[in-house]
Amino acid sequence: MDSNIIRLSAPFSYNHSYLFTNQKFKLRFPSISIRLQGRKNYHSDAKEFDESAFEAERLRLDAKARDSMAQTSKRVMEALAEEEDDPQAWKWVIRKRIWDLMEARNIAQNPRPVHHRIPNFIGAPAAAKNLSELQVFGMANCVKVNPDSPQKQVRFLTLSDGKKLLTPQPRLRTGFFSVLESSRLTPSTINEACNSLGIAKYGRPIGLDEKIKVDLIVIGSVAVDPKTGARLGKGEGFAELEYGMLQYMGAIDESTPVVTSGLLVTCYSA
């Protein structure tokens, strides 16, 4: 069991149709259809930011999303047990095996249970340190990092190193991306700025017309094949959405490195 960093090779292969306008973003693919109109600026004045209301709404929507994913997983598993053909079934089998294993071995960290999440794990800070020692991280001026718990230390190291941090709004529900810059933070607020509340409080929301260059993408994973770089997220498809949005913005191209931090475990078939 080791904390590890894996570079993903061709992590997002998809053929989606998407429509962008000034105020609206819409992206459809087989399992998700999302429409966003406008953005709420929760942090135009940090003193007016209602932390309790934001956190309560975040927890409510997260619970709702996890319940939806649990229902999807249940349907897939039931179809698999009845020998019905479901091309997505293997993904849910792998996800469940990883989540179950992490809980059974007690190598998971809060928030728990880790099911239907990008799982937090023992050794996440060590994995973040390994990532920070990569040449691509050292040379990057702007790093896009997912907002999940196991990558919190990656966000902290990004800001502590004086880099620009780009992070998506959780589930893209209050906007698209937020930009945080260490020069606009104090030493006492950098750590706070690495969690969901701090991102909403101190981040600058940007739209799809923002001119920005992302030098490195760090995403979370449930499972990764260390030989091929193929990865599985928790099943909602937001990593793909975000990647497509950044491509549309011209912020990334096919040469932009994509890495994931995670726990290297071995699962044996019964």
From TrEMBL:
<dbReference type="GO" id="GO:0016740">
    <property type="term" value="F:transferase activity"/>
</dbReference>
<protein>
    <submittedName>
        <fullName>NagB/RpiA/CoA transferase-like superfamily protein isoform 3</fullName>
    </submittedName>
</protein>
<dbReference type="InterPro" id="IPR024185">
    <property type="entry name" value="FTHF_cligase-like_sf"/>
</dbReference>
<dbReference type="Pfam" id="PF01812">
    <property type="entry name" value="5-FTHF_cyc-lig"/>
</dbReference>
<dbReference type="InterPro" id="IPR037171">
    <property type="entry name" value="NagB/RpiA_transferase-like"/>
</dbReference>
<dbReference type="InterPro" id="IPR002698">
    <property type="entry name" value="FTHF_cligase"/>
</dbReference>
<keyword id="KW-0808">Transferase</keyword>
